[in-house]
Design goal:
This protein is α+β, with helices and mostly antiparallel strands. It has 3 domains: 200 residues, no CATH class; 136 residues; 71 residues, no CATH class. The protein is 57% helix and 17% strand. The strands form 2 sheets. Strands 1, 3, 5, 6, 7, 8, 9, 10, 11 and 12 form a 10-stranded mixed sheet that branches. Strands 2-4 form a two-stranded antiparallel sheet. Helix 2 packs across helix 3.
Length: 444
């Protein structure tokens, strides 16, 4: 039987206050959504200043009323630069008697009832803790496993192990967001992904000493969750970039097929293709910048994570084994950053190809436009010569044919004199053909 004294669940929850291109209205909306997690009479103070760690409520810990009178808990809120952090602590209000592992289910349920489901989070970490009864012979890992199953119904138990303040610590991390596509991105952080740390302390003194590290965990888990969130965002951005590239390739194929058949595209259609490519290229460029931005987020928070972990180790003293927390730094350094760097390089090459496509399409449109203008000029020149010739011949023809003497001189061409306009038009058309033929010869 797995029993612990004073079982406690702490949920560390994180939400962005501001992000890239966030408007004032969106920042205000994020603030309101975060405040909705707290009691309505909460005194909230969040000055518009850059700060690494700022407690933003008075008092800093706000007790909440539990429906189950055997429970007790509180809220603790901070802002870490551009991110809000919320700790919800709930425990069995009994520090004398042991409690079964299933009591963690009650604690988790109580915490979840306090949450506003509308809040968009970037990550969360569950911290479970308690201490063993005196002279307990129970295996800490067996207890930790039962505690985990009390919260999560899956059968995944492959923890990283360590020691902290003479207690046994176990970390379980199930990450599924990185495999999500854009279509599955909605509410991804409410999926089966979870990060859980379980600490089983040998006695009350160790547990009380561990409680002094809550602020340190708040910072460490924030940096960790922001790294995971930024990497997940980078996967979504990469998928968006690939979709943009495919769309432009489809437009490229249309223009290439027209060239292979030596077709002259309608300029309107060509301009439509060009505008379509241009719009997609603009979004592609924005996404490429966003990808670089996610890389910077990981780099900054990885540095902060490593620094905070070093401070925790120093504060905890010797005889603590927290190497399992350093493994996350290795993952970020060896997997996340190289992957995003490679993606940026590949997408920049793609950008060059896309720019070549749009330049080729633009050149083709200019050629088609020039040819169309030249044809129009030819038409104007020919039509002008026809009209001019007709106008010049019509009036003299009437005068010429009206003279009596002309009837004897031109007895065999009565049509010319009977129909002077038609005759002049025929001559004009002949002149126009000659003009067209001569201009064509010069152009050749």
């Amino acid at each position: 039987m797995s029993d612990l004294i004073y079982p406690t669940v702490d949920l560390f929850l994180y939400a962005l206050k501001t992000s890239l291109n966030t408007t004032d209205a969106e920042t205000k909306k994020n603030k309101v959504a975060f405040l909705d997690q707290l009691p309505s009479d909460t005194q909230f103070h969040d000055p518009d200043i850059e700060t690494e760690y700022l407690e933003i409520t008075h008092p800093t810990q706000i007790n909440f009323i539990c429906q189950n009178k055997t429970l007790e808990g509180y809220y603790y809120t901070v802002r870490l630069n551009d991110t809000y952090g919320l700790q919800l602590d709930c425990s069995i209000n009994n520090q004398i008697h042991t409690q079964p592992a299933k009591s963690f289910t009650i604690l988790k349920t109580e915490i979840e009832q306090k949450l506003n489901k509308e809040l968009v989070t970037i990550g969360k970490t569950w911290l479970l803790s308690g201490w063993l009864s005196e002279n307990s012979s129970q295996n800490p890992e067996d207890i930790a496993k039962d505690c985990y199953y009390a919260l999560f119904k899956d059968t995944y138990w492959q923890p990283e192990k360590g020691t902290f303040l003479d207690g046994k610590v176990f970390e379980i991390w199930r990450s599924e967001n990185i495999n999500y596509s854009v279509e599955k991105a909605t509410n991804a952080l409410n999926s089966h992904e979870h990060h859980v740390i379980i600490a089983i302390y040998p006695h009350r003194e160790s547990a009380e000493q561990a409680a002094e590290f809550y602020k340190d965990w708040m910072g460490l888990f924030c940096y960790r969750n922001k790294i995971c969130w930024a990497y997940w965002q980078s996967r979504l951005v990469k998928e968006s970039l690939l979709n943009h590239y495919k769309q432009i390739e489809e437009n490229r194929k249309i223009t290439n097929q027209s060239n292979s058949r030596q077709e002259k595209q309608n300029i309107t259609i060509s301009r439509k293709i060009l505008n379509n490519i241009d719009n997609i290229l603009q979004q592609y460029t924005i996404d490429l910048l966003n990808l670089s931005f996610q890389k910077q987020i990981i780099e900054i928070n990885l540095s902060n994570y490593q620094l905070r972990l070093a401070l925790i180790k120093e504060k905890a003293g010797q005889n603590n084994q927290l190497d399992f927390l350093e493994k996350f730094s290795v993952i970020a350094n060896k997997k996340y950053l190289p992957q995003i760097t490679k993606d940026i390089e590949n997408m920049q090459l793609g950008l060059q190809l896309l720019e070549d496509t749009i330049n080729t399409t633009r050149s083709r449109i200019e050629v088609e436009k020039s040819e169309r203008d030249r044809n129009f000029q030819e038409l104007v020149a020919v039509a002008g010569s026809v009209i001019a010739t007709t106008s010049l011949l019509q009036s003299p023809a009437k005068d010429f044919c009206g003279k009596e003497s002309m009837k004897d001189i031109f007895p065999k061409i009565p049509y010319f004199c009977d129909y002077p306009f038609s005759s002049s038009l025929i001559v004009g058309i002949i002149v126009g053909f000659v003009v067209w033929w001569l201009r064509k010869g010069v152009r050749s």
